[in-house]
From TrEMBL:
<dbReference type="InterPro" id="IPR036388">
    <property type="entry name" value="WH-like_DNA-bd_sf"/>
</dbReference>
<dbReference type="Pfam" id="PF03466">
    <property type="entry name" value="LysR_substrate"/>
</dbReference>
<keyword id="KW-0238">DNA-binding</keyword>
<keyword id="KW-0805">Transcription regulation</keyword>
<feature type="domain" description="HTH lysR-type">
    <location>
        <begin position="5"/>
        <end position="62"/>
    </location>
</feature>
<dbReference type="InterPro" id="IPR005119">
    <property type="entry name" value="LysR_subst-bd"/>
</dbReference>
<dbReference type="InterPro" id="IPR000847">
    <property type="entry name" value="LysR_HTH_N"/>
</dbReference>
<dbReference type="Pfam" id="PF00126">
    <property type="entry name" value="HTH_1"/>
</dbReference>
<keyword id="KW-0804">Transcription</keyword>
<comment type="similarity">
    <text>Belongs to the LysR transcriptional regulatory family.</text>
</comment>
<dbReference type="InterPro" id="IPR036390">
    <property type="entry name" value="WH_DNA-bd_sf"/>
</dbReference>
<protein>
    <submittedName>
        <fullName>LysR family transcriptional regulator</fullName>
    </submittedName>
</protein>
Amino acid sequence: MTEWPDLAALELLVGIDDHGGLGAAARTVGIAQPNATRSVRRLEKQLGAVLVKRGRSGSVLTPEGTVVAHWAREVLTGAHRLLDAAAALSAEHHPELVVASSMTVAEHLIPRWLGAFRAVHDDVQIQLQVHNSMQVCDIAAAGGCDVGFVEGPSVPTGLQSVEVARDELVVVVAPGHPWARRRRPLTVAELAATPLVVREEGSGTRRTLDLALQEYTRPAPLLELGSGAAVRTSALGGVGPAVLSNLAVADHVETGQLRVVAVEELDLSRVLRAVWRPPRVLEGLAGELLRMIVRSRQAGPVRGRTTGT
């Protein structure tokens, strides 16, 4: 197995692309140039490609280096989001802002939201609790969080809520599944009659699916799993058809690892909401976070959709 690349070496590669030389890139990362040279050479040896062309006038990226730098940017962005999410999950601090979130929102939206919030409020300690949507609503109703984020068709009475995003569930299968070769969409009855890999009861994903198929007699689930990632892994492994958020499968659909199966006249769109206890207007740090999320939504759509709603 290939050894994981050093993130500092990836930062240097991106720095060369941005600043036009290894010396400037080393200063940006904060390491001495000889160390930077050794780091880049180790990366080249590890990847088996010449990434930097060295000359009297300085260092520039080779075509291969340019391609690797492009992907390095995404890796570094993901690493920063991981650190933001990990900092929020840490229970070692005394948080000033407690956020509860459903798993889908926590996996695909919360890191970006909290990253933007921390860029403005770097002194605020945040605790992130991850549960299914029903549990998040219970926590919010009991005052166990400042704001919660849920998915699903409804919010319990007594909680305030506002829409923060829209999403759609899709039926996905591995490329080898017979449904991947269908020329016609499934009927709703066919979907309802098929054992599926699904989320556990209480999740927003499961509630949306159950409500959409409530008029049909359905078999027991093929598998019932506690996270979207586990459901996706089962679908990728060919266990059976699965129903998941667009956000959770967009990358795998784009690469062909999963296929979306169309279903006639079935609406699996849903609203993602922030929830909190009264009063009606959310104040304080939680209110600032919510307003930031709403403004970012107005500025552009959520990425990662495989179909339109």
